[in-house]
Amino acid sequence: MAGSQSSGQPLVPARGSALLLLSLLLLLSQLLPGCSAQTKRYEPTWDSLDARELPAWFDEAKFGIFIHWGVFSVPGFGSEWFWWYWREQKIPAFVDFMKANYPPDFKYEDFALEFKGTFFKAYQWADIFQASGAKYIVLTTKHHEGFNLWKSNNSWNWNSVDRGPRRDIVKEIEVAIRSKTDLHFGLYYSLFEWFNPLFLLDKANKFKSKRYPVAKSLPDLYDLVNTYKPEILWADGDGDAPDTYWNSTDFLAWLYNESPVRDTVVTNDRWGLDNICRHGGYYTCSDRYNPGHLLPHKWENCMTIDKESWSYRRNAPLSDYLTIEEIVSQLVETVSCGGNFLMNIGPNKDGVISPIYEERLRQTGAWMKVNGEAIYETKPWRAQNDTLTPRVWYTSKPKENLVYAIFLQWPSSRMLVLGEPKATSGATTVKLLGYQDPLKWITVPNRGIIVELPELTLDALPCKWGWSLELRNVQ
């Protein structure tokens, strides 16, 4: 054997052995956990970065939970924009609220003393999220108020470790979420801060200087990625500054090429002024974006259960919360049109997910338990909604030759007319998810099919807020 010890020669492999060793190392780099198989490198240009394919897990997941929690949860009034509306815009409702409840010298920063998270239990949150049927979580690590939910070395004492809870909230939630094998962990980060002196200096200089991103936002972003290894990085808050000010393309090139999550991370489109719905991993386009038609690019509908706010409001009436029927309708429409559905909740200052939020999450989970087959890992079909019957939306699994018709109203006649599916003679079958027996159907020439739904009592229905038909072998 070349290089054997008995020859008395150094252990240097022959040329053929070296090539074999190199091949084995390359193979191991593709197979071993933590070893990247990525060969393509991305340049710090939008043309290059936008050409990166989204990791498949994101499109398959379909449904996530957004969490807005911060110092703004303490006043619990109006909005997560409380500080801006009170101090900068001086909106009367916010000014009057402060006059009625706090002394004249009270500062917004003083709210941090009450942000203690007294009853916050990360594993309890994770249990609720898992019960909702969500597949990923996006935690707000820092909103525009600038308060970090981890010990940022660039946040002075304006963070959850030095003030308020005196806990690393991001770490606790990361550990809890990752204890659930079917949940992906993501982080939201606001690029700008309303009243950060460095940002205000740069803004006054028309963003020709970069004191703030160099001292704060970029170090924070690198820290979040290296420390917590998120699978989603959800940027927001460009502060009317261009991506060149934020150095976004250089950061994203590092994220995709060098970072510990380079193969799995997903990013959105909020990396600078005018980037939204144009550049980035997937598009959000606007808050509560729900176009109602198929888009050529992967997108996400980030929306709120509380129709008026992303954060907890102590004074919110029941009518301000979406019903479970409204949530299911938005979820189905979003997925049918190729989007992901990111549903937001706002815990209170004590770290409690209020009963109305928990109920909506668990109701969604109960619906997904029956109908998840028509949501997870699906693709848009050739038609997104039905042409004859309103409130019917379609998804598909092409490899399995399956189409799902999700209908949101049970017809009183039990006859569901579907104008889009065309039956394949002798091969088409129809099944109601959550119901064992196959369903009868007839062909309507050139108009689709009519499905006879089973005669069931309300208690015997598979679910209460929308139902899914599995159509096999339809054109």
Automatic annotation (TrEMBL):
Its EC number is 3.2.1.51. GO terms for biological process: fucose metabolic process. SUPFAM superfamilies: (Trans)glycosidases (SSF51445). It holds the Pfam family Alpha_L_fucos. The record marks 302 as: May be important for catalysis. GO terms for molecular function: alpha-L-fucosidase activity. It catalyses: an alpha-L-fucoside + H2O = L-fucose + an alcohol; a neolactoside IV(2)-alpha-Fuc-nLc4Cer(d18:1(4E)) + H2O = a neolactoside nLc4Cer(d18:1(4E)) + L-fucose; a neolactoside IV(2)-alpha-Fuc-nLc4Cer(d18:0) + H2O = a neolactoside nLc4Cer(d18:0) + L-fucose. The keyword Disulfide bond does not apply. Residues 384-471 form the Alpha-L-fucosidase C-terminal domain. PROSITE patterns: ALPHA_L_FUCOSIDASE (PS00385). The keyword Zinc-finger does not apply. Belongs to the glycosyl hydrolase 29 family. This is Alpha-L-fucosidase. The lineage of its organism: Eukaryota, Metazoa, Chordata, Craniata, Vertebrata.
